[in-house]
Amino acid sequence: MTSPASSSEVKYLIESSEGNTFDVSGAALRQSNTFNAMFLNIGADGPIPFTDYNEATLKKVFEYCEHSVNEENYSGPKHQDDLSKWDLNFFNEMDQKMFIDVINASNFLDIERLTSYCCERIARMLRGKNTQEMIKVITLPTAEELEAKQKVEEKKAAAAKKVAEKAAETAEKTETLEELPVQQLVQTTRNKLTRKYLSFSNE
Amino acid sequence: MTVGDSPFPLLRLPSLLFRHVARYMENIDRLALSYVSNRTKSLVISIDLKCTEVMIQIEEAIIVRIDFPSYDNLICTFEDCPENGESKVHRLRDTREGFTFHKPEYRLEDSLSHIFEIYHQPNIVTVSIGRLLPDMEEFRRCIKSFSGLYISRDLTDIETWNILKTFKPEKRLFLDHIPFGNDKGMFHEFLIQNLEAIELRWNNIPLDCLLITNSEFIKIITPKINEKVLNRFIKHWINGSNPRLKHLELWCPKSLSEINLSVVLKGIRHQEIPETYRRSFKGLECTIHVDGGYDIRRKDGTVATVWSYDQENFDFFVWI
Lengths: 203, 320
Known about the structure:
The complex is a heterodimer. Chain A is mainly alpha-helical. Helix content of chain A is 61%, strand content 6%. Chain A has 2 domains: 11-138, Potassium Channel Kv1.1, Chain A (2-Layer Sandwich); 143-202. Chain A has helices spanning 26-29, 33-40, 55-67, 85-92, 96-109, 112-126, 131-138, 143-175, 182-202, and strands at 11-15, 21-25, 48-49. In chain A, a hairpin with a 5-residue loop joins strand 1 and strand 2. The longest helix of chain A has 33 residues, at 143-175. Chain A is elongated. Mean pLDDT of chain A is 76; it is low at 1-5 and 193-203. Helix content of chain B is 27%, strand content 29%. Chain B has a 15-stranded mixed β-sheet with strand order 5-4-3-2-1-6-7-8-9-10-11-15-14-13-12, with helices on one face. In chain B, helix 2 (27-34) crosses helix 3. Chains A and B meet through helix 5, helix 6 and helix 7 of A and helix 1, helix 2 and strand 5 of B.
């Protein structure tokens, strides 16, 4: 059920990329400037399609909106140290993929407060880092780089396999020593003893 | 997601979000980020950062100070071998916090150009030269425009002269020594420029040099003040010379010379103002409170005050 009415009790149906629908209160939805621009005045006939984002992401975004419904009007980002326990839990319990999905969805829905907090969180992640450290943090390998890396690893693995095979072969030869003819075995033992003697005489 | 050192695909975020992130970063972090890659540099440029002033000081090391309205000022230091592409960046208020940036292909000029690009060619750039760089011409080219120039007395006459020819400041000139002494012909062309301020260390000030100096604020540090020269200067001013002048300040250490105002004002109609009468003069850097003094009126009606503080300062304030 959707309605242009502004009462906070009104629920709107949201459709995710999976085609699933779930409802969100009008008060929470009105924190999205995108929603306000597109649907607030004209209403929506049927579920509102935010089909670029999956259900989990949208639910997470609107969970934040529902929570901040009663907070005073947004007036710039809070310092991370001033965030409430609920806010901190909200961010901390997300993995990186979810965090990126949430910031992208929040950016699309133009939810100023959530977008700002997310951006400030990333800025904080980079605080005090030098250029080299930043390169490590923000530069993720591209598909080509990953492929090249994989090739190198495959080569290394192949080389390691060869070495292992050679080692196994050598071990096999040692094991077959016992099977050598008696004369050859005597000669081998003599060689070993000679080497031992020589090493003593050197001392 | 906890705040930590794990990789984060910042560059895969939409540019709008990247800019949003950069706005929440501190000045020093933004500068570090701009050095990461050409893309981060372009993105940092796109957030339209502004600084209030950039000061470049060429001494043994080359120091670039970047001032911001928030007073979170930065210092970039290029050691005596700037050609190795290494610079140290730290906050003015805390030298421990900072980073060392090393990019072998970056010469001093590249680093300066980088800074100017990031901060969109700041209006106020002051260059202070205490020694010559291997290529002063190239250094000059990377600073598109600069407002102030300070030349140290450690440079020879020819070096000072060459710098004056290469670097022409738009607003302020500070000379710690006058090249070729009082060889007027050579120096006149710098005095007649319509500078906002000129500050000179001058041993013996010729009257004609004073009369052709076309700056609004003139400050001269001298071991001896010649009252007769000042007397003739004021008479010329009454008749219309130095029309742009707002403040002439002469300073000489008391141990060297004392100013006798009665000689300065000899033959000039003036009005003594009681010391209890305070006026505020808007100086170059700050407001100066003028208590008392001697008022003089020019032919066009403009009033100026002759004022001396502790007999080692001579001030000439023009009330425009």
